[in-house]
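Example record

Each entry pairs one chain with its bound ligand, pyridoxal-5'-phosphate.
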Amino acid sequence: MYQRGRAWIELNLSHLAHNVKEFQKILPEKCSLMPAIKANAYGHGAALIGRSLENMGISDFCVASLGEAIELRNAGITGQILILGYTSPRQFSELSRYRLTQTVIDLSYARQLNDFGEPVCVHVSIDTGMHRLGERSENTEQICQIWKLKNLRITGVFSHLCTADGHSAADHWFTLEQINRFNANIDFLHKQGFSGFKTHLQSSYGVLNYPDLNYDYARIGIALYGVLSSSTDNITAEADLKPVLSLKSRIECVKELHAGESIGYGLTFTAPKEMKIAAVSIGYADGIPRELSNKGHVLVHGKKAAIIGRICMDQLLIDASKLSHVSSGDEVVLIGSCGGEMLSAAKIAEYSNTISNEILSRLGNRLERIPIEI
Ligand SMILES: *Cc1c(COP(=O)(O)O)cnc(C)c1O
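Structure tokens for the complex follow.
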């Protein structure tokens, strides 16, 4: 099939390699990257991103689900794959078949894993304050019991920070509290004579704002793709991150719109004067938030063009009045650079009241993912 036909993603793998090196510089020497390549590698394409990271020498990965882990194995990933979320006991046999590492959610889940009757590789999740998954940090008796279960091969223990992106005194205080609780759990386990497990706490903002912490892995997602969650975020570490993904589409048709005519579903935009408009072959089914209707813009020939009318499932309309030579087949940039202009995922997130993580992870299956050699 012809690539770059209707709408597609371009992946700059040199930027990915650059970001990996940047994080290796920031992290303490003994800390390895465990890239988060869940949600189709934040929309970038899990197999492609996983394989290129493995080629860069990375050997540990984390995903959200069993299905994502199996997809990576089938794509040829040979390293450790940690499933961060719930796997049903009915699927426990798949864990050993695909050589996967399962998160222990709490003591009761640990017992279910143990009852499966065969050895399973696991990392134990500790709840230090997020109150999502994990055995509660203060439940040291329960944590000990997890370690005593015969069929669990415990190769790691981890927790997750929930205010590491913030800079208020309260955010810092809470993060330090979580760090202290996690460290106390590790000390306790060592004192009990348990050893041979790796530790990890930080995700992107944990590393970017607390770069001096010293654990065995850092589970980095969004920032490895060269993107911050919000364009207004400040970070403590000096990190030069370069966006890996660009999102592009094409003009389908160009037409005149007469003053007073309205366009699209619900006729939500009315031409104040004679205009030139264009239809672009990408819509909300591809992951463009419908929230961007009559907001935001795209880039055509290095110039901004406003999105007008409601975004449709497969298409959207733009104001092409200021574009001189626009015609069917011309390239449209929705995320990325064009000429001197740049449209970031974080900017689109800002227009649609969310974070870039959500924008990227929702990019649809119809988009071809194309690695760009530079
Ligand atoms: C998604 C996720 C990560 C990665 O988070 P980023 O903020 O994208 O770096 C790390 N750890 C856990 C438990 C996660 O769910």
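The CA atoms of residues 291 and 352 lie 5 Å apart.
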